[in-house]
Amino acid sequence: MNRIDKDNIFSLLFKTALKSGEVALSMQSTIVNEKKPVDEIENETSCHKAMREAKTKADEIVQEMFLNALLPYKDILTLDVEEDTCSTSLYNLKNYECTFILDPIDGTLRYIQQEDGWSICAGIIKENTFLCALVYFPKRKIMYVCEKYKGAYVYHNPKHIDDRKRLVFPSMINKDKIYYNYRLATSLVSYLQENGFEMIEDTKNQIGCPDAIIECINAKACAYIGAGRNLRDILLAVIFSFMQQGKALDFQGNPIVWETHGRQKELVITINAYLMQVLSKYKK
């Protein structure tokens, strides 16, 4: 194929997420942490490094299932994927005009520890605009998705592609709790604290980035702020931005320009108008 059929490619992602989720679930009880080498990061905690090092056979199998499902698009997709597996060599483009983003098991350490907070994350971005994205929690039986021109949706116990509900914010919204990642500048953390916000690092109490963003979706927190986060890890933030009134911004409160691959330098997701005003006055 020489062009993206958005509906077709979303259908492929949805079906593959369900199938690969079943496979990952069946492997979880006997899984082994094979670990992978990672670069040292200054001031990184041992807990965070352990999360980056974690790798299993399930990561590779899930990735291969997606790469094989998307083979009809191999000549127009550039890959931004977690693992180096057999089929990555079949995708030769490196221009990132249209990119397939995949984290086959986001939260591998939680997967190894037999928890339910791991997910399968996949998305397609074309020229800085997401065509679609999904985050599937197989053990929780819940999937969050977004599609260009259609909005954001949630599946409970997903089986059929049309059996979904639109994601909407509750009427009661937390107005001061903000989650952030450890790379965020202490000056911005302090600035927001001075303006009345409760700042909580996303590793506190082992909540993790995905559940911190889900708290934003459920309006139990008013924002998530990320600095230098990999796009593969923040597809839930993309889905948040597709919700009615959901905003994705840079640190000055401007509408975000999504990176085509790799890390998003600055990210704020929120529906809090006051926070947007505060950010607009922030000076780095």
TrEMBL record:
<feature type="binding site">
    <location>
        <position position="106"/>
    </location>
    <ligand>
        <name>Mg(2+)</name>
    </ligand>
</feature>
<keyword id="KW-0479">Metal-binding</keyword>
<dbReference type="GO" id="GO:0046872">
    <property type="term" value="F:metal ion binding"/>
</dbReference>
<feature type="binding site">
    <location>
        <position position="82"/>
    </location>
    <ligand>
        <name>Mg(2+)</name>
    </ligand>
</feature>
<keyword id="KW-0460">Magnesium</keyword>
<feature type="binding site">
    <location>
        <position position="105"/>
    </location>
    <ligand>
        <name>Mg(2+)</name>
    </ligand>
</feature>
<dbReference type="Pfam" id="PF00459">
    <property type="entry name" value="Inositol_P"/>
</dbReference>
<feature type="binding site">
    <location>
        <position position="103"/>
    </location>
    <ligand>
        <name>Mg(2+)</name>
    </ligand>
</feature>
<dbReference type="InterPro" id="IPR000760">
    <property type="entry name" value="Inositol_monophosphatase-like"/>
</dbReference>
<protein>
    <submittedName>
        <fullName>Inositol monophosphatase</fullName>
    </submittedName>
</protein>
